[in-house]
Specification:
Blueprint: H1 9-24, E1 31-32, E2 35-36, E3 41-44, E4 47-50, H2 54-59, E5 64-66, H3 77-86, E6 89-90, E7 98-107, E8 118-126, E9 134-145, H4 150-161, E10 166-175, E11 181-189, H5 194-204, E12 211-219, E13 222-229, E14 232-240, E15 245-249, H6 251-254, H7 259-274
Parallel strand pairs: 1-6, 2-5
Antiparallel strand pairs: 3-4, 5-7, 7-8, 9-11, 9-12, 10-11, 13-14, 14-15
Helix pairs in contact: 4-5
Length: 281
């Protein structure tokens, strides 16, 4: 009996090397991204096999794949076995993943030279990004201020932004009775944090009354990446939308560059780097 590809030296080296690193590192959790699907065929001791090869497809059922347009064998059985052994958690933010559910095979009666007369079907379950939109509740807190200096109000609002449970703080100018200019304040907050945020509003501003109500909130999956652009470290927020991933550089980090043009170029370069998985730290 021959183990052919399974016993090749490169496979043994991969397994031994991976085992040494796994045993040496004190890792709590192993993670991987969406796996590349690949395409085409490879020549083996069994003859020509479709990509992903049967062993890889069988091992990685339940994992998510995406076609990134690059053909060939992208995941080997050895790599698949290591992923399965480590029970790697997948982060599926950057591409709409297709989860490999099951594999099926059918065999014909005709003999073909150098080719197995086999039909294979791979069943994938597509995760819809729209279904990944998180539904949740939030509380809107609103009030107006017409007797607090702009400087002190700005300080108070900054402190409100730092309160636990506060999601966003907005300020807009309004005209109240007797033609008085005032500031209309709106906070978006977690429902569980309502009471202490209300107390903070009365502490940090001069308002003597406010309104609040519960609203439905939906948000898209997002993640923060840190990229290096030249000598600058920039945080980039990636958001998974229905048909694409968008990137937005943090404006505070872009202030490192000199001049309007420099800041614009730094933001553009950081956002482009954020969309390239190999460039994040």
């Amino acid at each position: 009996m021959s183990f052919h590809e399974l016993g090749e030296w490169d496979s043994i080296a991969d397994i031994v090397g991976a085992a040494y690193l796994i045993a040496s590192l004190d890792v709590v959790e192993w993670t991987i991204g969406t796996l590349p699907l690949g395409s085409g065929y490879i020549q083996t001791a069994h003859g020509r096999l479709p990509v992903p090869v049967p062993a890889t497809a069988a091992i990685l059922q339940g994992y998510a794949f995406a076609d990134d347009g690059v053909g060939g064998e992208r995941v080997t059985p050895t790599g698949a076995a290591i992923v399965r052994h480590l029970n790697c958690h997948q982060k599926r933010h950057l591409k709409t993943p297709n989860v490999l559910v099951c594999c099926g095979y059918g065999f014909g009666t005709r003999s073909l030279p150098g080719l197995s007369n086999t039909l294979r079907a791979l069943a994938f379950e597509t995760e819809n990004r729209q279904e990944a939109v998180e539904n949740a509740e939030a509380v809107v807190i609103q009030f107006e201020v017409d007797d607090q200096t702009p400087e002190d109000l700005a300080t108070g609002l900054d402190r409100l932004r730092g309160c636990a449970g506060v999601l966003d703080v907005l300020q807009s100018p309004v005209v109240e009775k007797k033609g008085r200019m005032a500031a209309s304040i709106q906070l978006l907050a977690e429902p569980d944090a309502l009471e202490h945020i209300v107390d903070a509003c009365f502490l940090e501003t001069t308002t003597i009354g406010l309104r609040h109500h519960v609203v439905q909130r939906r948000k898209l999956p997002r993640e923060m990446r840190i990229v290096q652009v030249g000598n600058h470290t920039v945080r980039v927020k990636l958001v998974s939308r229905a048909h694409a991933v968008t990137a937005k550089a943090e404006s505070d980090d872009a202030e490192q560059a000199e001049g309007s043009t420099g800041r614009m170029q730094l933001r553009q370069q950081a956002e482009a780097a954020g969309l390239r998985p190999e460039d994040h730290t």
